[in-house]
Amino acid sequence: MGDRARVRAVPASARGDGCDRGSAARRARPGDRADLGGEQSAALLAELRRALLGRFGTSDEQRLDMSLRRARLVVPVRFHVVHSGSRGRVPASVVRRQVSTLNAAYGGRRGGADTGVRFRLASADWTNASDWFNDPQEYEGAMKKRLRRGGRGTLNVFTAAVGTDVLGFSTFPQWYRKHPRLDGVVIDYRALPKNADGPFDRGYTAVHEIGHWLGLLHTFQGGCVPPGDGVADTPYEAEPAEGCPTYRDTCAQRGRDPVHNFMDYGHDTCMREFTAGQGRRIRAAWAAYRSGRRGHRHADPAARRADRGVDLGTRAPGEVRSVGGSR
C-alpha cells in the first residue's frame, strides 16, 4: 500500500502478516509479516484443508458454506488504544468510526461481495505506555499479555505508532492454537479513519489486517504461481499494486489484477471490495479455527452484550481507562 505498505506483524515466535506500505509502493519487503514465502502460504492453506476435513468431513469451502451458513457472523471487538501522553490518544469517536468502516467494507457497502461478517464493539480502553506506543513490535508480547481479552473468536485491535512504512500487523487464525496470547491486530493510529492526512486515511489498513486475522492472504501472494492466495475468484497478480492503477494485468492467467481488493496494497481511495470467494474463505477459516467448540457464533461471552452496543461515555482518566465490555 503505497506510502504505508501494509505490513502485518505476528508474534516474534510466529511472525505473521505485516503489511508494508512502503514509501512509494506497497512492495513486499523483508519485515512484512504478511509477505509469506511460497512454502509458508502453501502450508497455511494445507493446514486449513486438514482442519476442515477433520472437523466437517470436507475441505470443499463452497459445499461447507452451503451446509453451515446461517445468520451473519458477528465478531466482538475489543479495542485497545495505546498512547504516549496525548500522542496517539485517539478519541472514542474515532474508535466507533473504525468499527463502522469495518462493517461497511465487510458488508459490501463499498462495492464487491458481502462477506457475511459484522463487527460489534465489546469494549475500548486507553493505556498510557510510551514504550509500547513507540515500538509495538518490540513490546508486542508484553502489551498483548496485559491488554488482550476474550478467546479465539474475539478480535483484539491495538493502536500505536507502528510506523510510516509499516502501518499494521496481524496474526493468522492458524497460529492461535500455539500462540493464543499473541492473537490480534495492531494498527498505526494515523491509519484510523480521518485521523490523519494522506493516502491511508480511510481506515482500510484495519480492514486489510483484519482480513489476515480472518484467514485471507494477499491477493498478490505467490505472484503468478499457483495456488496464489488460494481463492478462485481473485485473479493472479505478479506484484502488489502501487497507488491506484486504473488498469493492470500482470499475469497470463485469466482476469485483470484485483487492484481494488482490500487485500492488495493500493491507496485507500483505490480499495473497495472483497470477493464472494474471500467471503467463503473467511467463513471456512472461522469454522475451522475461531468458532466455539459447539459451533457457537460468539466465542466471547461479551459478544452478546456487544450486540446491544457499548457505552463509550466519559470516565475518570487513569493509567488504563476501560470503557464498556465487562465491568
From TrEMBL:
Keyword Metal-binding part of the UniProt annotation: yes
Biological processes, Gene Ontology terms: proteolysis
Domain of life, source organism: Bacteria
Similarity comment text for this entry: Belongs to the peptidase M43B family.
Upper lineage: Bacteria, Bacillati, Actinomycetota, Actinomycetes, Streptosporangiales
Molecular function terms from GO: metal ion binding; metallopeptidase activity
Residue span of region Disordered: 1-36, 293-327
Domain Peptidase M43 pregnancy-associated plasma-A: 204-285
CDD domains assigned to the protein according to its UniProt record, in alphabetical order: ZnMc_pappalysin_like
Name this polypeptide is given: Zinc metalloprotease
InterPro entries cross-referenced by the UniProt entry: MetalloPept_cat_dom_sf, Peptidase_M43
Biased composition (Basic and acidic residues): 298-310
Annotated keywords: Disulfide bond, Hydrolase, Metal-binding, Metalloprotease, Protease, Signal, Zinc
